[in-house]
């Protein structure tokens, strides 16, 4: 019973944290929705850990929780690959922006110089 | 204009090179007066930009440090946006001798990319150990790809023109070593002609070298990875 208490509260805390982050607009909706769905899907399992056992015995897996652990590792792997991809893209975007800023500042400096030459002959 | 090919821009990516950049710019102006000089200041903490400007170069300054590959890409972008026909890229520490710009620009009449190679007979430049193996490995692999003998593929002294310059302004690889290895593979794959001419290297006039001997093994590994990625990249 104590185990269920630990997993159950962890699941609930996770749900509350995500909800709070979404409420304060700290998370983009796509990530918030993803983690909310995950939390809601996992929460029943936190309270009744044997929930998957019937399903896994059909698949030939000894315990429902080992299937769950396997799936969560796969899921977390996919999420972190996605985040690496996203941050590479963001880096490329900020890089282009910094190039743009550097070119614009050079243009502005040039314009200012030519204007000063006109106004002070 | 040499080679009768229109406007020429010399790109000097610089990071904390205030000590040497003035002499480098003045020497280029003296040896090859037909070129405009662009210093890409990669967010130096010293007075690089101010020194370069007063020495008569155009300066663009990045808002934060992007690394030498990023600085070079910005240089090519500047060249394209300002209508230059030829771009020469050099190091800002005085290792590259501007006397060779003339030869390189002339060699461009039969090639799209000309590499100033340090081991091709002229000068005394030598490296040893894993760094040398890495450079040999790269040279052999890239010579085979480019179907011409390339002895110094990591040289930062090169010249290109026209379409290849436009290609570089948006595709110049910005990662470490990628900027030297990838450019050759990309250029060859897009059907451009690559040549090398021998140049001699001089000791640096200022600044500190960016790689220490202890990093040589890492260099070997990374150059292998850069080559592999360059080959399989779309």
From TrEMBL, chain A:
TM region(s), chain numbering: 6-22, 34-52, 58-79
Keywords for this protein: Coiled coil, Membrane, Transmembrane, Transmembrane helix
The keyword Transmembrane is assigned to this record: yes
Xref: InterPro entries: DUF2304 (IPR019277)
Transmembrane in keyword set: yes
Pfam families reported for this sequence: DUF2304 (PF10066)
Segments forming a coiled coil: 87-114
Protein's UniProt name: DUF2304 domain-containing protein
Taxonomic source organism: Actinoplanes xinjiangensis
Highest classification ranks of the organism: Bacteria, Bacillati, Actinomycetota, Actinomycetes, Micromonosporales
From TrEMBL, chain B:
GO molecular function terms listed in the Swiss-Prot or TrEMBL record: transferase activity
Keyword Transferase in annotation: yes
Keywords: Transferase
Listed SUPFAM superfamilies: Nucleotide-diphospho-sugar transferases
Database matches in Gene3D superfamilies: Spore Coat Polysaccharide Biosynthesis Protein SpsA, Chain A
Pfam family, one: Glycos_transf_2
Limits of the Glycosyltransferase 2-like domain: 11-161
InterPro entries registered for this protein in UniProt: Glyco_trans_2-like (IPR001173), Glycosyltransferase_2 (IPR050256), Nucleotide-diphossugar_trans (IPR029044)
Similarity comment: Belongs to the glycosyltransferase 2 family.
Protein name: Glycosyl transferase family 2
Organism, scientific name: Actinoplanes xinjiangensis
Lineage, top ranks: Bacteria, Bacillati, Actinomycetota, Actinomycetes, Micromonosporales
């Amino acid at each position: 019973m104590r185990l269920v208490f630990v997993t159950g509260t962890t699941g609930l805390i996770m749900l509350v944290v995500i909800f709070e982050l979404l409420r304060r607009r700290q998370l983009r909706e796509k990530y918030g929705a993803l983690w909310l769905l995950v939390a809601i899907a996992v929460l029943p399992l936190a309270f009744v850990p044997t929930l998957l056992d019937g399903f896994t015995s059909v698949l030939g897996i000894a315990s429902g929780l080992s299937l769950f652990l396997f799936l969560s590792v796969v899921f977390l792997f996919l999420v972190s690959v996605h985040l690496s991809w996203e941050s590479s893209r963001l880096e490329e975007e900020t890089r282009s922006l910094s190039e743009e800023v550097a070119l614009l500042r050079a243009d502005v400096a040039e314009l200012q110089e030519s204007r000063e030459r006109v106004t002070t002959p | 204009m040499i080679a009768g090919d229109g406007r020429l821009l010399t790109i000097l990516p610089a990071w904390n090179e205030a000590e040497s950049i003035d002499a480098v710019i003045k020497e280029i102006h003296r040896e090859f007066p037909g070129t405009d000089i662009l210093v890409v200041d990669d967010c130096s903490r010293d007075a690089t930009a101010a020194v370069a400007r007063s020495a008569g170069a155009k300066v663009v300054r990045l808002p934060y440090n992007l690394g030498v590959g990023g600085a070079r890409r910005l240089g090519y972008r500047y060249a394209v946006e300002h209508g230059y026909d030829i771009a020469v890229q050099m190091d800002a520490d005085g290792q590259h001798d501007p006397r060779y710009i003339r030869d390189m620009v002339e060699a461009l009449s039969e090639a799209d990319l000309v590499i100033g190679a340090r081991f091709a007979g002229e000068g005394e430049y030598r490296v040893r150990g894993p760094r040398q193996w890495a450079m040999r490995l790269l040279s052999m692999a890239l010579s085979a790809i480019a179907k011409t003998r390339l002895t110094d593929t990591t040289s930062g002294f090169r010249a290109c023109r026209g379409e290849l310059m436009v290609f570089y302004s948006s595709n110049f690889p910005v990662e470490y070593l990628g900027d030297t290895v990838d450019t050759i593979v990309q250029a060859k794959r897009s059907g451009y002609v690559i040549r090398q001419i021998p140049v001699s290297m001089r000791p640096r006039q200022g600044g500190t070298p960016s790689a220490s001997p202890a990093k040589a093994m890492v260099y070997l590994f990374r150059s292998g990875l850069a080559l592999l990625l360059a080959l399989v990249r779309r």
